[in-house]
């Protein structure tokens, strides 16, 4: 029996709708915990780490974690999910392909430039030019520098990038048991 079938069985066994809310809250916190723990997650790609700094995967802004919520659909159903369109790709892995010419992957130090000039590559490059930097392309890399200064990478240009699977949206058997116990359902009776 998988987690969804077991949770459905728990919900069906309940007599009080207030218990559905407890199931939802517990499941959300457990799934959020998987994001925080990051067990089994592939490490950050070097370009990602250079852009945002060292840290754990899927923990940059907390937006994905905070988007995991539950909803009481009817008197007998609780739904746990997220409204972030990238959540499924992060959970299951996959390939992102450029819709037009290139994906613009931020280079080291671009985050601070985004705070000054704007988030998009166009805004960053325009801001660099306005600040007196020379902006140019070298192969598949957009670069910038002050006159006679060191060349710095602004963006790596790629046709596609592979996102490793970082499974976080699940409940373990122990977690399902804990939810069932908390709401007074005997799993052996399902």
Low-pLDDT windows of residues: none
Largest sheet: 4 strands, antiparallel
Strand content: 15-25%
C-alpha-based Rg, rounded: 22 Å
Short structural description:
With 190 residues, the protein is of the alpha+beta class. It contains eight helices and eight strands; from the N terminus they run ααααββαββααββββα.
Structural summary, described in words:
The structure is a single chain. By secondary structure, this protein is α+β, with helices and mostly antiparallel strands. The chain contains eight helices and eight strands. Helix content is 41%, strand content 21%. A hairpin with a 6-residue loop joins strand 6 (141-145) and strand 7. It has two domains: 3-93 and 164-189, no CATH class; 103-160, no CATH class. Helix 2 packs antiparallel against helix 8. It is elongated.
Features:
190 residues; alpha+beta; 2 domains; two-stranded antiparallel ribbon; 8 helices; 41% helix
List the helices and strands and how they pair.
Blueprint lengths: L2 H11 L4 H20 L8 H7 L10 H5 L1 E6 L2 E5 L5 H6 L1 E4 L5 E4 L3 H8 L3 H10 L3 E5 L2 E5 L6 E7 L1 E4 L9 H11 L7
Helix pairs in contact: 1-8, 2-8, 6-7
């Amino acid at each position: 029996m998988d987690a969804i079938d077991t949770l459905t069985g728990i919900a069906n066994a309940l007599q009080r709708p207030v218990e559905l809310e407890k199931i939802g809250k517990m499941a959300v916190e457990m799934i959020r915990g998987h994001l925080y723990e990051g067990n089994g997650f592939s490490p950050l790609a070097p370009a990602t780490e250079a852009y945002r700094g060292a840290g754990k995967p899927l923990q940059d802004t907390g937006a994905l974690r905070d988007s995991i919520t539950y909803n009481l659909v009817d008197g007998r159903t609780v739904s746990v999910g997220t409204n972030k369109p990238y959540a499924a790709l992060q959970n299951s892995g996959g390939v992102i392909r450029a819709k037009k010419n290139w994906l613009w992957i931020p280079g080291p130090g671009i985050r601070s430039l985004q705070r000054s000039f704007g988030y998009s590559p166009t805004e960053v490059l325009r801001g660099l030019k306005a600040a007196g930097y020379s902006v140019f392309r070298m192969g598949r890399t957009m670069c910038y520098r002050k006159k006679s200064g060191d060349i710095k990478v602004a963006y790596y240009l790629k046709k596609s990038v592979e996102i490793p699977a970082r499974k976080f949206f699940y409940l373990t058997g122990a977690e399902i048991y804990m939810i069932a116990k908390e709401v007074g359902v005997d799993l052996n009776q399902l």
